[in-house]
């Protein structure tokens, strides 16, 4: 039997897929705005620092940032100075904090642009002070304290020297110590003993810095999970990341819906080939999948070159033709194959497959993909590459975000 390789009537962009595109990530900016509004209500008097690093967790940094600000975020948080400066270049003037600094980084540009700096060591302090001398603008500093994560941040034993040096520069008019922050290691398990220990360690660090003479206006510790589940960790501001995008930061305890969040991203792809094959047909590299009966195969034009995990080989779930399927065989650089479990005319070239989305229409979620790959939902959405265009729907959607491309 030969399949008619015809394209059905074009699907509109109303929450689905625009024409002429092989695959894309559909980002609902209204969902991001609503998620931040919900987080703001939970945070109470604490300001919301919406984290938009890593290209807005794969959703697009600038559109995401604007949606978060519409939702009530008072600040934006990023890792790199280049990210902060990209926000400024896009015309965003609201407060921005960047905390993962590199020797010789763009400190002068950042200080001139009014970007707040996370200071974790004496060398970062000295580079900030040097930038202030160059620009004539005091550098605004947030001291980063390692309260137990063992990652970025000043160890408590080194904090007296760091604050003393910072206050000397402040007396010269070079810097302003305005904030102090840390990061939790186990907030997704709120009763873990490390959580209360880190909150205590952070409180002690705040007291030490204040006794030294710093006038702090922003103390912040809570990530997404702590914002939602740990009132004692909220202080003056919270820094939600994953929750901004509607994904549960503690999936073992609560779903997105139970937390009042709505996933903002859907990953969709068009079928570009449909063909019937006999029983015993091997599929994809290594022929790790062999058809158990005469069946129909459908080809989707995206793979690990687009950010699909290769670990999804044989396990990645996809909604196509009203049914959930599983990727047959290995994920390739540009392609994956679905075995439709028998001969069928129900799927045609041009049909849209949903790899993940909010889950409200029976489609897999980013968490389903994470479970299939042995990872976390953060990685699933963040790893999508530039070859997958982002298509924005909802209020404030930017125009002309989809490049013209042919199915590959």
Mind explaining what this structure looks like?
This protein is of the alpha/beta class and 408 residues long. The protein has two domains: 29-244, Alanine racemase (TIM Barrel), CATH 3.20.20; 264-393, Lyase, Ornithine Decarboxylase, Chain A, domain 1, CATH 2.40.37.10. The protein has eleven helices and 19 strands. It has helices at 29-43, 53-57, 61-70, 81-89, 107-112, 122-135, 159-171, 193-211, 224-229, 366-373, 377-382; strands at residues 23-28, 47-51, 75-78, 96-98, 116-119, 139-144, 175-181, 218-222, 237-238, 265-270, 273-277, 282-283, 289-290, 295-300, 317-320, 323-326, 336-339, 352-356, 390-393. The strands form five sheets. Strands 2-3-4-5-6-7-8-9 form an eight-stranded parallel barrel, surrounded by six helices. The protein has a four-stranded mixed sheet with strand order 18-10-1-19. Mean pLDDT is 92; it is low at 1-15 and 400-408.
């Amino acid at each position: 039997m030969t399949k008619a390789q015809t394209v059905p009537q074009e699907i509109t962009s109303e929450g689905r897929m625009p024409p002429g595109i092989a695959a894309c990530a559909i980002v609902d900016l209204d969902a991001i705005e609503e998620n931040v509004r919900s987080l703001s209500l939970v945070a109470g008097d604490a300001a919301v620092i919406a984290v938009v690093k890593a290209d807005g967790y794969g959703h697009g940094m600038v559109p995401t940032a604007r949606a978060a600000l519409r939702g009530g975020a008072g600040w934006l948080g990023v890792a790199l100075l280049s990210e902060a400066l990209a926000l400024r270049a896009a015309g965003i003037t609201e407060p921005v904090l960047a905390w993962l600094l590199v020797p010789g980084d763009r400190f002068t540009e950042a200080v001139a642009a009014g970007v707040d700096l996370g200071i974790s060591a004496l060398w970062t302090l000295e580079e900030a002070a040097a930038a202030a001398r160059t620009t004539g603008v005091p550098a605004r500093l947030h001291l980063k304290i390692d309260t137990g994560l063992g990652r970025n941040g000043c160890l408590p034993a080194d904090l007296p020297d760091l604050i003393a040096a910072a206050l000397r520069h402040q007396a010269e008019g070079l810097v302003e110590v305005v904030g102090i922050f840390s990061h939790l290691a186990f907030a997704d398990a709120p009763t873990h003993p490390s959580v209360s220990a880190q909150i205590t360690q952070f409180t002690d660090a705040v007291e030490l810095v204040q006794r030294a003479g710093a006038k702090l206006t922003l103390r912040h510790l809570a990530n997404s999970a702590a914002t939602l589940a740990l009132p004692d960790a909220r202080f003056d501001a919270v820094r939600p990341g994953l929750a901004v995008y509607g994904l549960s930061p503690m999936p073992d305890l609560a779903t997105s819906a139970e937390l009042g969040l709505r996933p903002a991203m859907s990953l969709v792809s068009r079928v570009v080939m449909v063909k019937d094959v006999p029983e015993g047909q091997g599929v994809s590299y290594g022929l790790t999948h062999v058809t158990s009966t005469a069946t129909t195969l459908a080809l989707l034009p995206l793979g690990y070159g687009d950010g699909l995990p290769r670990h999804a080989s044989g396990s990645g779930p996809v909604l196509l033709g009203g049914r959930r399927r599983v990727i047959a065989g290995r994920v390739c650089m540009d392609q994956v194959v679905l075995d439709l479990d028998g001969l069928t005319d129900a799927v045609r070239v041009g049909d849209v497959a949903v790899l993940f989305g909010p889950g409200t229409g029976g489609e897999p979620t980013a968490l389903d993909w994470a479970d299939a790959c042995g990872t976390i939902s953060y990685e699933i959405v963040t790893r999508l590459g530039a070859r997958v265009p982002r298509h924005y729907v909802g209020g404030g959607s930017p125009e002309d975000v989809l490049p013209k491309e042919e199915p590959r």
